[in-house]
Amino acid sequence: MRFADISLQKKLDKQIKNMVQQACSDKVYTVQHDQLTFSDFLSNKLLLVCVIRGGVPYAFFDLIQRFTPFDDHYWADFLDISVKSLQRYRQDDRTFKPSLSEKIIEMAEVTNMGLDVFGSMDKFKLWLDTPNYALGSLQPAELLKDSYGKAMVVAELTKINYGILV
Asked: Cross-referenced Pfam families, in alphabetical order (predicted)?
């Protein structure tokens, strides 16, 4: 994964350590909390499940939002809540319920993969906003709003990563 902002990477790593420690400390997950990184977290499905079930705190969402190329309006639409509700989460520093937490983490996974494939946020954002023939001439960003569309986008990113341009 490539971070343009090293301080954001450090903040994400720190937030992951705290979330995993809080949500998963009583579970039988053998993870060194002090060495856990954001990339490690995204590749460990058991940790993802544990954190999702505990709910994602707004502080983590805020970091994810800064990590992804999406604004409040896109996130509100993606999470199927109003922008006002999203602002209330911010004001009250609330924890997202598991169904919303899952979507937040899914978007982090897609962004992480996109950065690995394209090497920069600008190139990834351009790809997301460009109609794609392999995706029915839709913009990949439009497809991220449901699980089947997300799976199509991830499959297309995987193909691009392996040089399969059909």
From this structure: Xre_MbcA_ParS_C
- Give 3-state DSSP helix, strand, coil % of the chain, rounded to 5: 70, 0, 25
CA distances from 99 to 1, 21, 96 (A): 26, 21, 8
CA–CA dist 18, 56 (Å, integer): 11
Q: What is the pLDDT of residues 92-120, one digit of tens each?
A: 999 999 999 999 999 999 999 999 999 99
> What are the two backbone dihedrals, phi and then psi, of residue 95, each rounded to the nearest 5 degrees?
-100, 135
pTM given for the model = 0.89
- Closest-CA residue to 65 (of 99, 111, 21): 111
DSSP-assigned beta bridge partners for residue 95:
57
